[in-house]
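Before the break, one more example. Copy the sequence into your notebook; we will annotate it together after we see the structure.
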Amino acid sequence: MTTKTLERVYENLTARERCSLIVQAGIRGDEEERERLVRSASSGTYLIADYASYANAFTVVRSFAIEAQLELAAEFWRHVARFESARPTADDPASEEAVQQASDLMLVYAYMLTTWADGWRMFCSELGIDAEALGEAAGETDVRKTAEDMARQTMPTPEGAIRILQRLAAIETGTDRAGTAEDVAVLLREVFDKLGKNR
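Here is what the structure looks like once it is written out:
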């Protein structure tokens, strides 16, 4: 096909087709094709609500926070299973070390999961949003909540988390405090504000 013929085909693409082709060209590394697809897109003046960029930003931050909690919940459960299946034996001193490591990792992930859950709630609260009601309205499953409830029963204090991290790394971490829910809320707020202000 000639370039002119391609341009006529490009002009008739739907936005969905164009998006798919742009991504495919990017994957192939065909920058010339990608650029032709981008340039041939129709454009216009669009009106959007003044809160639209913040609504999009909230969706991104929510996805990020929930995904982080789900990943931490999966790691927590994995280390709970490792801990429960580790059985020290009298003739194998290494097995006692494996039990301690499994316990330490379970506790660290318990701390991180609850820290992220509390940070997410704190961020939502600053916006006047009830994180629990939002989760229920969105039809979220109980996977995160079940893991969080179990983690709260086992989690160490921030100081305990630092000691465990130091023991796991067998070195000084260079910090005297573990990340907190406030740290998570600050991170989420910064991302939210940065994305929301980019209209």
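Residues 52-197 form one domain. The radius of gyration is 24 Å. Try to locate both features in your own notes.
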